[in-house]
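Give me the fold.
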Amino acid sequence: MVVALLAISVGAAILSGLVTIYYDVPRQMGAQFRNYGANMILVSSGTDTEFDLDAVQDAVSLISGDELVGVTPYRYETVKIHDQPVVAAGTDMNGARTTSPYWHIEGEWPAEGQALVGKTEAEHLGLKVGSTFNVTYSGEGDEEVTDDFGTDMTVSGILETGGSEEDYIYISLDELEEIAGDGSLDIAEVSVSAVKESLNDYADRINNADLGVSARLVKRVTSSESSVLTKLQALVLIVTIVVLVLTMICVATTMTAVVTERRREIGLRKALGASDGSIIGEFMGEGVMLGIIGGILGAVLGFVFAQFISMNVFSSSISFRPLLLPVTVIVSVAVTGLACLSPVRSAIDVDPALVLKGE
């Protein structure tokens, strides 16, 4: 019986733990995928529509605050450094930290009067961390917008991503406006910790809100996230089913051994007039009790198991789901009851004359 209780407890623990992980995986995976960049972009919905910070804020206000990781606006202008044309990206540096955590920076994030230079541009212009350069802006024509001396800036860090981000220099939006004058934004990156269905819902809300902003999903991120999440949840579900089947087999084997050991006792009871119902009630009662105790122990151990997995795989904790306790107990009782059907049938088939022969 101890072996049976142990089997039920282990099975219930794995069931509880894997189910907890199953429902927590979308949040955990979403947090992990946010390390690979934003999964939504905002652009102007038309050529005549003003696309500025106010429009971006109105759009992201439609996204749940619990799921909004960060938003980063970008404005691109061609400037001159060492008399060579370079694309400058004006952005919010704090926002870039949250939406682009994969950026590898040699040096530091820029402060006022500093710039972050992409690796490709740094090599092209011969810039290093600590180098000073002068920025001028000509606008669409040849007339200088900035003064004759331009704007001096210092390189705070070199950006290395292995992508197109290395082709720009990054300064704050305010400083780009001082250099190039007022202007609207070109794009805004939004990082949302949500599954694909929720992202589509948020995009539809923004697009239907008539804010002058168009929301588009970054398919290479959202599709990969959805595919990995689906496969991982399927794997967890399969493992859970296999564990339940193995638990049922273990309990059935153990209860069969119990019935075999108690054949004389069963035969004696039947010889004294015990009904099949009382024998069934005895063994099923033992099975149900094992299921209840094992389910409670398994639910507690399952949370510890899920917490251990979450901390070691995703480096974040999970919250206990109270509803999982009764569900685990009910499933444990059901599995135990099914496992006891065959042993109980063999118990009521015991022939008192045969087992008590010679007594």
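The beta strands are 40-44, 68-81, 84-91, 104-107, 114-118, 132-136, 151-160, 169-172, 187-192, 213-217.
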